[in-house]
Each structure stands twice: as C-alpha cells, then as structure tokens.
Amino acid sequence: MTPQQPPAIPTPMLDRLEHRPVLLGALVALAAQLLFSIGLHRPSILLFDEAHYVPAARVLIDLAHVANPEHPLLGKALIALSMLIFGDNPVGWRAMSTLFGTATILGIYAFTLALTRATRPALFAALFAMLGQMVFVQARIGMLDIFMGAFLVWGGVLFLWAMRAARRAMPLWLGCAALLGAAVAVKWAAIPYVALALATFTALKWRHPANFGQLPWLVSSLAFGCVSLLIYFLTFAPAFFYAQNPLTLARLIPFQFEMLALQTQTLAAHSYQSDWWSWPLMLRPIWYFYEPDQGAVRGVLLVGNPAILWGGLVAVAACFRAGMRERASAPLAVAALWTFSLAIWAIIPKSLGFFYYYYLSGIILCVALAVAFHHHADRVKRRDEWFLVVAVALFAYFYPILAALPLPNDRGFERYVWLPGWA
C-alpha cells in the first residue's frame, strides 16, 4: 500500500517569483511606470528647472539656435522627443522622464541581481528605489538627471555582465562604453563614472585576469574610450543644423571649452543651495513647486524617504564592515561606490550645490540597503520586509507633496517640515 503523501504547503508568491527573475523584473517595471505616470499632468505649469530645459527643448525642436549651452544636447533632445510625441503640455514635458525613471528602477533590479546573483535583494533594491522618493520626483519632472542616472545604472549593469562573461564580453563592454558616453552627453557630472569604470576594469584585470573573459587590457581600454567619445560627440549632430550660428566641426572642440567656462562660473547665491556634506542628512531638500494651481495649493518637495536615505547610511556602514572584516566583495563594492558618488562633489568645481546632486547617491543607498539585508540574512531574518512596510508608510505620508496633490491651505506644507531647513 502506497503511503499517503502529506499535503503540499503553499509556496508564498514572493518565493515563487524569486525563481522567475525575468517575470519579476517585468512586474517591477510595470509597477514603476504606473506609479510614475499617475497624475503626471500636475502641476500644469513649469516647475523648478523645467523653466530652463523645456524652453531649450522647444528651441531644439525648431533647430533655431543654441539654448542652455552649459549642458550637452542629449537630455534636452529626449525632452524634445517627448514633446513631439505627447505635445507641448505637462505630460509631454515629463513623459520621457517617466520612461527613464522606469528604466532606472529596472536597471537597479538588474544591477543588484548581477552583483549578488540573488533575486530577493534585487527586488528589494528596486522597491526601495521606487519608494525612496528621489527617483519618483525626478521621474515626474522635465530635468536632466533622470536621463543621466538611467544611462549610468545600465552602464553599470553591462559592466557587471561583461566582467562575468566567459564569452562575448567585448559587445557588453562596448555597450557599457556607449551608455556611459550617453550619460556624459546628458550632463558632465557623469564623467567621473567613466573614469571609475576604466579604473575598476584595470584593477580587476590586474588582480584576476580571468575577469572580462579574454578582453586584452590595452585594446579594450582604448576601445572603451573611443566608443564613449564617439557616442558623446554624435549627440551634437542637431546643432549642425541650427538656423542661427550652427555648430561646425572646427567649433566642436572649442565649444566644449565654452561649456566648461559656463559650468565653472561663479553663480549668485540661491535660496536652496546646500553643501555636499549636508545631503546625506537631508538638511536642505528643495521645494520644486509650491503655489496655487488647478484650483488648489500644491507642492512638490524633493526630499528622500527618511527610512531609506537615513537608514541607507547605516547600511553603507554595515557594508563597509562586512567588506573589511569578512572580505565580502558585493557589500564593499556598494559602500565604496556610494562614497565615490558623494566624494566627487567635494572635488567638482561648482560654485553652488543643490540637494538634487545627491540623486545618484540616493539610488546607490537603495542597493546598499538590499545588499546589507541580504548579506546579514541569517541574523536579520526577514526584517527587510518590515523595513519595506515602514518605507511604504512614509512614502504614503509624503505622497501629497511628492505628486502635487491639493493641500488644505497655503500653510499645508507645515505638516511635512521635519527639520528647519525643510521649510
């Protein structure tokens, strides 16, 4: 007689999805796109630096003349493309940003998956980024950072894929170069990450020659630099067709020095300026918008989710500790990357700093949190789930002044002012 089998215990949905990383990534991307797109028409007028980039995109659509010359063209070209597709209206100004915000979330998922080779931390890193508020706000405004960030994140993904590729490492390596070149073509703030990629490639090839398959160091480094530069300069193609003072090959390089002069000029003081060391503490976030619109007082505050941005600092310390004491490579890499992302702002010759410069560092904190929970899983058990609950609650609390919902009166912002610098 065959013994009776015990009844099967249902497997939790999350545990089942962990074994289907592609499906899980698709679901994460869908959730992100929905989250970023709802209420995209609010506010109905330009907010914060949209006042610079949307008019520049309009000029670019007409190929009239140079506008906003302190930044390369690619980010403004993407806003212009969005306006051509969706119209010169609030949705058109911001729709492309939502797509790149979704690409950023999916990239964080893929990056963490490649780094840890585990689906759970990849999922939580993506969820932390969705709820961390920095990506949410930047994905709903026509600014440049969301484009630069997406290119950098996916450049990091291809870097990790190339590093572990036994074969076909070169196409992945050159893809990484193209994406990092595109990031620089959005904002020059991406240049240090190109240097970091080359320096890391050199260090890894020197210590472990098997990394990156059979890629030769010198040829691969030269190819990387050539592809990055080629992509960067190709993005200036529209400027050769301006009606007034079009760019020429002879002026292409001198124009870069003109951009450098504009980037490093001394600017007048700004009410929302802040120092780089204050950004991790969120001492001076930025009100991108606060005024009557569509029959109500509305606000958009660029502020991080306190659980994620402040808790992420603890995670960075835990990752450094794991890296130093246990020689854990993934935690150490994330902690070092966050430190690098912040340290460059202590070096870049900018006369003014703003909290939104911390955008990339805020993304890395989400990865650090997920990696720290994963590395210490035996000790913290499933506390990442409880931490996620807290993050969701705080996101819901701040949502009205992240998504420009109607506030009860013109003093409605006071509920969200936790520190004096938040007013």
Describe what you observe in this structure.
The protein is mainly α and 423 residues long. Helices cover 61% and strands 4% of the residues. The chain has helices at 13-17, 21-37, 50-62, 74-86, 90-116, 119-131, 134-138, 145-163, 169-186, 191-207, 217-234, 249-264, 306-326, 329-347, 359-375, 377-380, 383-398, and strands at 286-293, 296-302. It has a two-stranded antiparallel sheet with strand order 1-2. Helix 10 runs antiparallel to helix 11. It is globular and about 55 Å long.
Blueprint (SSEs and pairs):
Elements: H1 13-17, H2 21-37, H3 50-62, H4 74-86, H5 90-116, H6 119-131, H7 134-138, H8 145-163, H9 169-186, H10 191-207, H11 217-234, H12 249-264, E1 286-293, E2 296-302, H13 306-326, H14 329-347, H15 359-375, H16 377-380, H17 383-398
Explain briefly what this protein structure is.
With 423 residues, the chain is mainly α.
Distance between the termini: 76 Å
Briefly note the structural class of the backbone. mainly alpha
pLDDT under 50 segments (min length 5)? 1-11
Output mean pLDDT: 93
What is the CA-based Rg, rounded?
Answer: 22 Å
Q: Count all strands and give the number.
A: 2
CA-based shape: globular
N-to-C order of helices and strands = HHHHHHHHHHHHEEHHHHH
The helix fraction, in percent, is 55-70%
Strand-residue fraction? Answer: under 5%
* Annotation field: number of helices: 17
Reading side by side through the largest sheet, how are the strands ordered? 1-2
Tell me the quaternary state: single chain
Major β-sheet annotation? 2 strands, antiparallel
